[in-house]
C-alpha cells in the first residue's frame, strides 16, 4: 500500500478461498481479550462488516476500499448470483460514517459497552500497531506506524491469521462457559463453518488424516452444544452462519461418507429451525 494504514480506514481483506471482504482497521485497545492474545507481529487487526469476526493481517495484503468501489460492487451485484452475506457487508460499509459509532455499536453487540468509558470521542487516524495500555497523546496520534514485537506463543497462531477458523482447543471451552459465550454464538458458528468448509469442502486434494480427525471433533462439539437447553446453535446462529447448508453439502458428498451420520443427526435436530429459516426467506422475497 502506498500510504500507511490508520485506524478507521476501510479495506478489503482476503482470507483463504473466500472473496475479499469489506472491513475496518480496528484500534487494538478496543479488541476483545481473545482476539488481542492472537496478536501477530507486523499485522494490524481488522473487523469485518456483516460478520462477527476479526482478523490479523499485514498491511501490504490489504486493499484500500472507498465509496466509489463499494457503490460499483453493489451496482454490479444487482441481479447477479452474489453471496447475500457479502452483499450485506458492502451495504454496511456504504453506511459506515465514523469509527466512533462503529466501535460503540460493536461493543454493544458484544456486551462490552463497559470497555469504553465514554469520556471522549473515539477518533480515527491512530497508529493501528499500538497495543492495549498505550496512552493516547498528541505525540503518538498520527505518528508513523511501527510493528510490534511478538506477544503470542507459536501455538496460538495459525495460518489463517489467528482468528480465521477455530481449532479444537478454541472450542473446548464452549460448553464449560456457555453463559459467557452465548453472546458470541454467531461468531463461533461462523468459525465452525469456515473450519469444516476448509477441511472438507473447499480443497483440491483429499483431507489429511489430521483434518479428518479434527472435523469429527468439531462435529461432536457442535452436537454437544446442540443438545444443550437452550441450544447454542439457535435460529440466529444458523441464519447467519449457514452451518446447516454446509452440513448438507458434506452429507451429499460420496467421498465424505464417514461424516454422513453425524451431519444427518444434526440436520434432523435442526429441522424445525431450518423450516423456519425457509419461511422467513420466502416472506422476505414476497415483501
What can you tell me about this protein's structure?
The longest helix has 18 residues. The protein is α+β, with helices and mostly antiparallel strands and 287 residues long. The chain is 44% helix and 7% strand. Strands 4-3-2-1-5 form a five-stranded antiparallel sheet. The chain is globular, with a radius of gyration of 20 Å. The protein folds into two domains: 106 residues, Roll (SH3 type barrels); 122 residues. It contains 13 helices and five strands. Pfam families: PWWP (PF00855). This is LAFE_0H17150g1_1. InterPro entries: IOC4-like_PWWP, PWWP_dom.
Summarize this structure briefly.
By secondary structure, the protein is an alpha+beta fold. It has helices at about 35, 65-75, 85-95, 100-110, 170, 175, 180, 185-200, 210-225, 235-240, 245-250, 260-270, 270-285; strands at about 10-15, 20-25, 45-50, 55, 65. The protein has 13 helices and 5 strands.
Order of helices and strands: EEHEEEHHHHHHHHHHHH
Could you give the count of β-strands? 5
The residue fraction in helices comes out at 40-55%
**Any idea what the shape is?**
globular
Number of helices: 13
Please describe the biggest sheet, giving its number of strands, its sense, and whether it closes into a barrel.
5 strands, antiparallel
Measured distance between first and last alpha carbons: 43 Å
How much of the polypeptide forms β-strand, as a percent range?
Answer: 5-15%
In round numbers, the mean pLDDT is 80
Low-confidence parts: 137-180
**Class by alpha and beta content:** alpha+beta
- Structural domains: how many: 2
Strand order of the largest sheet: 4-3-2-1-5
Report Rg: 20 Å
Amino acid at each position: 500500500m502506498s500510504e500507511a494504514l490508520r485506524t478507521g480506514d476501510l479495506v478489503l481483506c482476503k482470507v483463504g478461498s473466500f472473496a475479499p471482504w469489506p472491513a475496518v482497521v480496528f484500534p487494538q485497545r478496543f479488541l476483545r481479550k481473545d482476539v488481542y492474545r492472537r496478536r501477530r507481529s507486523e499485522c494490524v487487526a481488522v473487523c469485518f462488516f456483516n460478520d462477527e469476526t476479526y482478523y490479523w493481517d499485514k498491511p501490504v495484503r490489504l486493499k484500500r476500499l472507498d465509496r466509489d468501489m463499494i457503490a460499483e460492487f453493489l451496482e454490479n451485484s444487482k441481479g447477479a448470483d452474489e453471496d447475500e452475506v457479502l452483499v450485506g457487508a458492502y451495504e454496511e460499509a456504504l453506511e459506515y460514517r465514523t469509527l466512533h459509532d462503529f466501535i460503540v455499536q460493536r461493543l454493544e453487540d458484544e456486551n462490552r459497552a463497559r470497555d469504553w468509558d465514554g469520556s471522549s470521542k473515539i477518533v480515527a487516524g491512530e497508529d493501528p500497531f499500538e497495543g492495549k495500555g498505550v496512552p493516547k497523546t498528541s505525540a503518538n496520534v498520527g505518528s508513523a506506524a511501527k510493528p510490534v514485537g511478538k506477544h503470542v506463543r507459536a501455538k496460538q497462531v495459525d495460518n489463517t491469521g489467528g482468528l480465521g477458523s477455530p481449532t479444537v482447543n478454541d472450542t473446548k471451552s464452549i460448553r464449560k462457559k456457555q453463559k459467557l459465550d452465548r453472546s458470541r454464538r454467531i461468531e463461533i458458528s461462523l468459525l465452525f463453518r469456515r473450519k469444516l468448509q476448509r477441511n472438507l469442502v473447499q480443497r483440491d486434494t483429499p483431507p489429511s488424516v489430521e483434518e479428518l480427525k479434527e472435523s469429527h471433533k468439531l462435529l461432536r462439539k457442535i452436537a454437544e452444544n446442540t443438545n444443550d437447553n437452550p441450544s447454542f446453535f439457535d435460529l440466529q446462529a444458523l441464519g447467519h452462519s449457514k452451518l446447516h447448508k454446509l452440513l448438507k453439502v458434506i452429507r451429499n458428498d460420496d467421498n465424505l461418507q464417514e461424516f454422513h451420520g453425524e451431519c444427518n443427526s444434526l440436520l434432523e435436530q435442526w429441522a424445525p429451525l431450518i423450516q423456519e429459516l425457509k419461511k422467513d426467506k420466502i416472506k422476505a422475497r414476497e415483501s
